[in-house]
């Protein structure tokens, strides 16, 4: 995560409050029912009276339109403001690559185009005012997950697994990835938990039992619940009428509603500074607003609650545990860990300090999700990602007089 990163446009993420809680539904591997959970979870939240949007972020294998009965291959209409109008199905708003292409036409996209489409699906869609925006992620821990974590202030992630040991082990990797980029884990869902015989009512645990709860306990994250196998889930997905709509009285539909109820009480705004922000150093334009909760003893060591500057050469970071840390801006440039400044294989610094001007200053500082900042400097360098942990470990500078 220390490779070169394109500098975001200033206007892209200037105001995202209308999107409400942004919740990613993720899995370490495919085939665990993540899209089915995302769809039914969105509908269950809407049934509670919430305004919900659903982004099918699996650009290569979009399945949400089919599950909701949305026609594919038709160009979406545009709003008067020039934004894409989302489809509406069963009371929720939806956007997906599957709506833009025919069923048998593959999405052949390189990494930069994936990032472009993801940002468009979130920022250039006329969502209106939402309470929740659910992101149905592709499986794994690749470009899509990192792009979303860096570009948007995710409220948290729901991790989906099956009770199989191999699925649980891979789910653990997904959790660790989200933790690394400071995306709160809202909980684990164990899907395909057991099959209830429609004739005799006996439950057969085809993929073992209780693995989701055990891994949640071992990692110290919440367990949101287990969803049993139900043949009707497949039929409903094929028919475009999800289970919570078509068969609300089934145990699986009840499990989706219980997960939604638990999740709606658990999702909260991150405790640090409000994001996103894009701070112009020279004139303090768009300076990040401080957290409404000031730092104090006992708070988190790597969660910033405010950023300020002293004079023109010192960045001052206020941390949630009450620590105030001044950082000289040239030291900040010298501490860059991007691929142009540090050898990625050995970790050895390749940046020659003699090439960094003594009078260098930042030009912009912007947020990268909940875990880092990007900085553009007056020497033209802008590819560094400074995680909050990296900033906290830097040596404090002498504060200049304002």
TrEMBL record:
It holds the Pfam family GBBH-like_N. Residues 282-301 are annotated as: Disordered. GO terms for molecular function: 4 iron, 4 sulfur cluster binding; ATP binding; ATP hydrolysis activity; ATP-dependent FeS chaperone activity; metal ion binding. InterPro entries: GBBH-like_N, GBBH-like_N_sf, Mrp-like_CS, Mrp/NBP35_ATP-bd, NUBPL-like, P-loop_NTPase, YlxH/NBP35. Keywords: ATP-binding, Hydrolase, Iron, Iron-sulfur, Metal-binding, Nucleotide-binding. ATP binds at residues 28-35. Residues 311-392 form the Gamma-butyrobetaine hydroxylase-like N-terminal domain. Belongs to the Mrp/NBP35 ATP-binding proteins family. Homodimer. Binds and transfers iron-sulfur (Fe-S) clusters to target apoproteins. Can hydrolyze ATP. This is Iron-sulfur cluster carrier protein.
């Amino acid at each position: 995560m220390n490779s070169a990163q394109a500098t975001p446009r200033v206007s892209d993420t200037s105001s995202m409050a209308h999107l409400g809680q942004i919740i990613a539904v993720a899995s370490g591997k495919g085939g665990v029912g993540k899209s089915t959970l995302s769809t039914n979870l969105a509908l269950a939240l809407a049934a509670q009276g919430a305004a919900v949007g659903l982004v099918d972020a699996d650009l290569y294998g979009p399945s949400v339109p089919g599950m909701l009965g949305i026609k594919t291959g038709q160009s979406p209409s545009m709003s008067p403001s020039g934004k894409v109008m989302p489809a509406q199905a069963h009371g929720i708003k939806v956007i997906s690559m599957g709506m833009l292409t025919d069923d048998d036409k593959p999405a052949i996209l390189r990494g930069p185009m994936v990032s472009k489409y993801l940002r468009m699906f979130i920022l250039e869609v006329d969502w209106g005012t939402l309470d929740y925006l659910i992101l149905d992620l592709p499986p794994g821990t690749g470009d899509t997950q990192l792009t979303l974590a860096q570009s948007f202030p995710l409220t948290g992630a729901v991790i989906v697994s099956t009770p199989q040991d191999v699925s649980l082990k891979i789910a653990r990797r997904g959790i660790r990835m989200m933790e690394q980029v400071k995306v709160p884990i809202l909980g684990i869902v164990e899907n395909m938990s057991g099959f209830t015989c429609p004739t005799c009512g006996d439950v057969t645990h085809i993929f073992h039992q209780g693995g989701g709860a055990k891994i949640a306990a071992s990692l110290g994250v919440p367990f949101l619940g287990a969803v049993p196998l139900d043949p009707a889930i497949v039929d409903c997905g094929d028919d475009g009428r999800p289970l919570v709509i078509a068969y609300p009285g089934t145990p699986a539909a009840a499990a989706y509603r219980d997960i939604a109820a638990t999740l709606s009480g658990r999702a909260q705004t991150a405790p640090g500074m409000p994001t996103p922000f894009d701070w112009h150093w020279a004139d303090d334009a768009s300076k990040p607003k401080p957290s409404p909760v000031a730092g104090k003893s006992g708070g988190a060591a790597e969660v910033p609650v405010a950023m300020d500057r002293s004079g023109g050469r010192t960045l001052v970071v206020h941390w949630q545990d009450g620590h105030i840390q001044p950082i000289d801006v040239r030291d900040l440039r010298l501490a860059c860990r991007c691929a142009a400044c540090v050898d990625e294989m050995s970790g050895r610094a390749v940046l020659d300090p003699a090439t960094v001007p003594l009078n260098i200053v930042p030009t912009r500082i912007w947020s990268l999700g909940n875990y880092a900042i990007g900085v553009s400097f007056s020497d033209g360098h802008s590819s560094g990602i400074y995680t909050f942990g990296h900033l906290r470990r830097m040596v404090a500078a002498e504060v200049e007089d304002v």
